[in-house]
Amino acid sequence: MNKIEKEEVLSVFKEKGALLEGHFKLSSGLHSAKYLQCAKVLQYPETAERFCKQLAAELKTKGVKVDVVVGPAMGGVIIAYELARQLGVRSVFTERVDGKVLLRRGFEINKGENCVIAEDVVTTGKSTKEVIDVLKEHGANLTACASLIDRSGGEASFGVPFVNMAQVEVETFEQFACPMCKQNILVEKPGSRKEI
Fold first, then answer.
1. For the chain, how far is it from start to end, CA to CA, in angstroms?
2. Which residues are annotated as a binding site for 5-phospho-alpha-D-ribose 1-diphosphate?
3. What are the DSSP calls for 82-103, one per residue?
4. pLDDT tens for residues 52-89?
5. How far apart are CA 193 and CA 189, in angstroms?
6. How far is CA 69 from CA 39, 87, 143, in A?
7. Rounded to an integer, what distance in angstroms lies between the CA atom of residue 28 and that of residue 10?
8. CATH architecture of 6-182
9. Which secondary structure element, helix H or strand E, spans residue 165, and what is its range?
10. Binding site: which residues?
């Protein structure tokens, strides 16, 4: 399998109309003039398979042990499912209920299971850290994290290997310092946390 380089990943995002420009409020609360809408890329199963095959290969190269892949809803659901398929393990997802991240729908993570958390985009790592808390509650072992895109500028750290398809530098702003807010440009909230 030929390694997919960052330039090709971004080319796929552009080709699928998934690199959006405007004024966006991210799940982290930060504002940005660009947004990577992974759902537009992941609507193509062959692309999800190709990307997750590479993530799985990187995890295997690092010797990561995994029994279950966990994805935070919504963005991590498809990634977790396809990555689990590539690794030959099961997949579950967490959901946010009244502001708290939980396992629902009868999903279980057993004490001592080795877990990989899979996300679409990591910006601050907040969602991943919330899932880490769920794993701790269940006595599971976090063995790695994976995402399609790392927007953290290399700052996201989870104490385990973190593999991704591409690190993308996109400038973000606190609301009080956001140039689009100062120009009264309408803000969009494209992520899974809908409060603005």
1. 42
2. 96, 119-127
3. HHHHHHTSEEEEEEEETTEEEE
4. 999 999 999 999 999 999 999 988 999 999 999 999 99
5. 8
6. 19, 9, 10
7. 22
8. 3-Layer(aba) Sandwich (3.40)
9. strand 162-167
10. 96, 119-127, 151
Structure tokens given for 112: 């001592």
Going by the annotation, the residues of the binding site for orotate are 123, 151
The total number of residues shown for the chain amounts to 196
**81-136 pLDDT, tens per residue?**
999 999 999 999 999 999 899 899 999 999 999 999 999 999 888 899 999 999 99
Give the pair of three-digit tokens for residue 58. 């990187």
* Domain boundaries of the chain, sorted by first residue: 6-182
CA–CA dist 165, 82 (Å, integer): 14
User: Residue 152 carries which DSSP code?
Assistant: S
| Token pair of 70 as six digits | 């966990």
